[in-house]
Amino acid sequence: MSAARIAIVHERFTEYGGSEAVVAEFIKTWPGAPVFAPIADAPCTRALLTAAGLEVSEEGDSTEIPAAAAHLVRDSWLSRAYAASGRRSHAPLLPLVPRVLRGLPLRDEFDAVVVSHHAFATQAALATDAPVIAYVHSPARWAWDRAFRAREAGGVAGQAALTALGVMARRNELRAAPRLAHVVANSQAVADRVRDWWGLPASVVNPPVRVERFAPDPRVEREDFFLFAGRLVPYKRPDLAIRAARQAGVRLVILGDGRYRRQLESMAGPETVFLGAASDEVLQDMYRRCRALLMPGVEDFGIVPVEAMACGAPVLAVGEGGALDTVVPGISGEHVPAGSDDSVVAGFARLMRDFDPSAYHAETIRKHAATFSPESFRTRIADIVSRHSR
Question: Which of 61, 162, 230, 232 has a Cα at 20 to 30 A from 126?
Answer without folding.
Answer: 162
